[in-house]
Design brief:
Helix content is 38%, strand content 16%. By secondary structure, it is an alpha/beta fold. The strands form four sheets. A seven-stranded mixed β-sheet has the order 13-12-11-10-9-8-15, with helices on one face. A six-stranded mixed β-sheet has the order 5-4-3-2-1-14. It has a four-stranded parallel β-sheet with strand order 18-17-16-19, sandwiched between helices. Helix 4 (206-220) links the parallel strand 10 and strand 11 (224-229).
Length: 668
């Protein structure tokens, strides 16, 4: 059954004896029993799995045809207790004085329908046209199996009435390899889980191409695609089969079996029907495609009731706790280069458009400004402009610590930017005087910067909080200086924008922001990657020091010993949780209860108690809804990944939308 939108699917490749239908039926039933124990809901076997694919002219023997039907009847009867889900097995069936290569859909002791193969390969090593007819040549719409009339044809979809979003379509081997597979029509008519019974032999390079076909078809169809192929027990007279089984979902490979195994194969994965549904709804061109496919295809939906029991506690798929962060491995450098180059290309085009002016950037010694500075440097290199054209400002305020200040100064020097330090405390003091503001209740009359700093140092830690005017004056003063110094390169990331952790018309504003769709966990990763792969010496040491620095806006007074007192994650929560929520909330529209379920599957419970995860999700929801007004007027910036909050691109939301419904779900 589907749980939180998940459906467990399986692809099976059983041990087989060519032309021994009774033996093959027992192996099929044994794998059904294993699948039942694993709570699989939909299970697909290879092409002609009851007889074997390589029977050749034996397919024209009446004994084999009858033996196949007897074996199918046995599987159907025993499946009533062996397997409660939907199983699809391959069998040859004679209809209208022709023999068809068929898929029989078996559910709880009966055959729901028989689907014949549409495209019969008869080239190179394939000779199916010698034995089998194409589905289009059939005249009958029914076939009699064990005395019962069963629907027969390619125009059926199988609709699980008790599992939201589950509609099954079936095709057979070669059907996938043609220019417009039957599964494309099935998906356009509502099929979300596509099954393929296959007998695909192994030759050099074919496995990669087969994998691409399955993954790409799942992406084009915005569907789950479950593929089962026969294994090494088929005849090896001329070819060898590897038992390649695959499960893909919307362009992503979920699971893959090892080929050439000499035992039964049962590949299991959990498909996310919610993801498929929301992507189909969002992708309007998917629905429009049905108007232009050239051939109108009507399908009859045959209902079934799965009535599955309790779902398994653990998903048979990985839920990545850090979905924005590239995986280690050989493609790591390629991914990081792609991210950097996307950011550089965006900023370079903007600077070229306006004559390659000097750029101004604030460098705090934190992660975001460091990444933005690295991008600015690479952009200048790309445009053949000296890095001295980068006017980099570090602007210490009342909360700046010696460590971040030192990192900022060292970074600007090592990267060759024109560095300048501007202490904003005096300017901020003058503005607070003009506003008549008393920071933390302190009377500013007669105090200069040193005097106020001395008073702040003596202030107890519990009183150095909750003064937004004090914080915002500093953030906006820094932005004002940058705006008057040149073309301002923004530094804020998408995680801060999601949570509203930025000052409106302060660090929130710039003239172009290359970080605008980079989440905080990815910012940290990219800076760390750059330090270890692109720099050495003093620059590397400084970058690694930045990575090790706790995220903080440094707008509240530091402790008397110079330590940071304002922890971002201590205030708004861990960024790894918020980025996880942001990805699934924005990319797939997941409701709060599913976000909590996914967080548990990602094993966050090893770091955070369940109630802690729930509490930070409530913080995420409240802040996300409350801060849309900041996102409605963002500066330009490139979309880098699948998640962006640009009001011109991915996200349009009323600034006064209510969060009440989402918060009620987080509390349940």
């Amino acid at each position: 059954m589907a749980h939180h939108g998940f459906l467990r699917v399986g692809a099976a490749s059983p041990v087989l004896h060519v032309a021994d239908c009774a033996f093959n039926a027992e192996r099929i039933l044994a794998l059904m029993a294993r699948a039942e124990a694993e709570r699989v809901a939909v299970l697909v076997f290879p092409e002609l799995s009851i007889t074997g694919y390589t029977c050749a002219d034996l397919f024209q023997q009446i004994a084999l045809q009858r033996g196949a039907l007897d074996a199918l009847a046995h599987v159907v009867k025993e499946s009533a207790t062996a397997f409660r889900g939907l199983a699809v097995v391959g069998v040859p069936i004679a209809v209208d004085d022709q023999l068809f290569n068929c898929a029989a859909l078996v559910h709880r002791g009966r055959v729901l329908a028989v689907v014949p193969k549409s495209f019969i390969p008869n080239y190179k090593e394939f000779y199916e046209g010698r034995w089998f007819a194409a589905a289009a040549t059939a005249r009958s719409g029914e076939v009699v199996l064990a005395g019962a009339r069963v629907p027969f044809g390619t125009n059926f979809l199988f609709d699980a009435t008790d599992v939201e979003g589950l509609v099954v379509g079936v095709e057979i081997c070669e059907d996938l390899w043609v220019p417009v597979p039957p599964s494309s029509f099935q998906a356009l008519r509502g099929a979300t889980v596509l099954l393929n019974l296959s007998a695909s032999n192994e030759v050099i390079g074919k496995a990669n191409y087969r994998r691409q076909l399955v993954v790409n078809q799942s992406g084009r169809c915005i569907a789950a695609y479950v593929y089962a192929s026969c294994g090494v027990w088929e005849s090896t007279t001329d070819v060898v089969f590897g038992g390649h089984c695959l499960v893909a979902e919307n362009g992503t490979l979920l699971a893959e079996s090892k080929r050439f195994q000499r035992d039964d194969t049962l590949l299991i994965a959990d498909a996310d029907l919610d993801r498929l549904r929301i992507d189909r709804i969002r992708t309007n061109s998917f629905g429009d495609a049905g108007l232009y496919v050239g051939v109108e295809r009507d399908f009859t939906r045959l209902p079934l009731v799965l009535e599955r029991g309790e779902p398994p506690a653990r998903l048979a798929r990985e839920v990545d706790p850090h979905p924005f962060v590239p995986r280690e491995g050989e493609r790591l450098r390629e991914r990081c280069e792609e991210i950097f180059q996307t950011q550089v290309a965006g900023l370079a085009k903007r600077l070229e458009q306006i004559g390659k002016p000097p750029v101004a950037i604030g460098v705090s010694g934190g992660l975001d400004s460091t990444l933005a500075l690295l991008i600015a440097c690479k952009t200048m290199d790309t445009l053949a402009v000296p890095r001295e054209r980068i006017r980099a400002f570090t602007m210490p305020g009342f909360g700046t610590t010696s460590g971040t200040r030192a990192n900022a100064v060292a970074l600007m020097q090592h990267l060759g930017a024109t560095a300048r330090e501007v202490d904003v405390r005096r300017l901020c003091l003058e503005e607070m005087h003009a506003l008549g503001h008393r920071p933390f209740g302190i009377d500013l009359e007669g105090l200069d910067v040193d005097g106020l700093t001395e008073v702040l140092d003596r202030l107890p830690p519990e009183k150095k909080c909750n003064d937004l005017v004090f914080e915002n004056v500093q953030a906006r003063m820094r932005t004002s200086i940058l705006m008057n110094a040149g073309f301002v390169v923004g530094t804020g990331d998408v995680s801060e924008l999601a949570l509203g952790w930025c000052t409106y018309n302060g660090d929130h504003m710039s003239m172009y922001n290359p970080n605008s769709s980079i989440p905080k966990t990815l910012v940290k990763f990219l800076v760390d990657w750059a330090a270890r792969n692109e720099f050495d010496g003093d620059a590397r040491r400084t970058l690694l020091a930045v990575v090790a620095t706790e995220p903080t806006p440094e707008l509240l007074p530091a402790a008397g010993d110079g330590r940071i007192t304002q922890s971002t994650e201590g205030t708004i929560g861990p960024y790894e949780l918020h980025d996880f929520f942001l990805y699934h909330f924005l990319r797939f529209g997941m409701p709060p209860e599913k976000l909590l379920f996914l967080a548990a599957q990602a094993r966050f419970h090893r770091t955070y108690a369940p109630e802690e995860v729930r509490r930070w999700l409530q913080v995420f929801v409240r802040r996300f809804f409350a801060n849309q007004f900041k996102r409605s007027c963002l500066p330009d910036g490139p979309k880098v990944g699948s998640v962006s909050l640009s009001p011109r691109g991915d996200w349009r939301m009323p600034s006064d939308a209510a969060a009440a419904m989402w918060l009620r779900w987080t509390a349940s």
